[in-house]
Amino acid sequence: MTTRWLVTGAHGLLGQDVLAELAADPDAAVTGLGRDRLDITDPAAVRAAVPGHSVVVNCAAWTDVDGAERSEAAATAVNGTGVRNLARACADGGAILLHLSTDYVFPGDARGPYPEDAPTGPVNAYGRSKLVGERAVVELLPDTGYVVRTAWLYGEHGPNFVATVLELAARRESLDVVADQHGQPTWTRALARQLAALGRAALTGRAPAGIYHGTSAGRTTWCGLARDTFRLSGLDPERIRPVGSEKFPRPAARPAFGVLGHGKWLRAGLPPLPPWDDQLASAVRLPAFAELADAARTTRRP
């Protein structure tokens, strides 16, 4: 039986991979809407878009962390009120909602991975705006709402850290990269597969509603990620120099520790995402990254 899926934020880094993953499913009929066709802050537009779909995957978000610090109300309109609009429309139409959130809802002061039910406490406006959205899903969709927290996303379809360090490798002999922030790099293609699997499990009643952590297994730092990206791309990882966060002051504070636990997946009968370094080894072979690495290896830097 064909299942109708709606993907919001369909033109983004994650949204494009979710569309591709669902397009490969012969039992899925997929509608992808970018912001040009659906502004989730518009309640009427959301009420018109959701009916007729069984699963909504919300990849629409304000993702400019520093911009949120300057414009918290605007960020909350998207990450909070917009999500409430979607959750209400899903409740009215009987649809399942898979909503993407972030590790930034936590304060970053833990010593071990945050479980899904750990107390929240964002340290910046972006995290606060995302927490508003999480609460809307839990409140309005207690049985059919799924919050999937993710972090450190990279992929083929938009700006991201892995692409940036490879681009900089062609222009700089060495790169200073923060070594005191800990997290879990997550490949959007792998996360898209996980979201599709969660949606199917939700449709069959196998996955309990609530909060899941959609990040890779393991942990590293931004410096560790940069070094592994270089190593796997045939570049010298020693060109990456570790520095402290104080070297790059930003308007928004960043949590020092964003490592998440993955226990909820077992209750859904689904394995968590694989280790981050295994995912990275696969991702850097894709043309989008391989071409950047090739340019970095062949460019003569000053």
From TrEMBL:
It is an enzyme of class 1 (oxidoreductase). Residues 5-284 form the RmlD-like substrate binding domain. Pfam families: RmlD_sub_bind (PF04321). InterPro entries: dTDP_dehydrorham_reduct, NAD(P)-bd_dom_sf, RmlD-like-bd. It comes from the Bacteria. Pathway: Carbohydrate biosynthesis; dTDP-L-rhamnose biosynthesis. Keywords: NADP, Oxidoreductase. GO terms for molecular function: dTDP-4-dehydrorhamnose reductase activity. The keyword Thylakoid does not apply. Its EC number is 1.1.1.133. The keyword Oxidoreductase applies. Belongs to the dTDP-4-dehydrorhamnose reductase family. Catalyzes the reduction of dTDP-6-deoxy-L-lyxo-4-hexulose to yield dTDP-L-rhamnose. This is dTDP-4-dehydrorhamnose reductase. The lineage of its organism: Bacteria, Bacillati, Actinomycetota, Actinomycetes, Kitasatosporales.
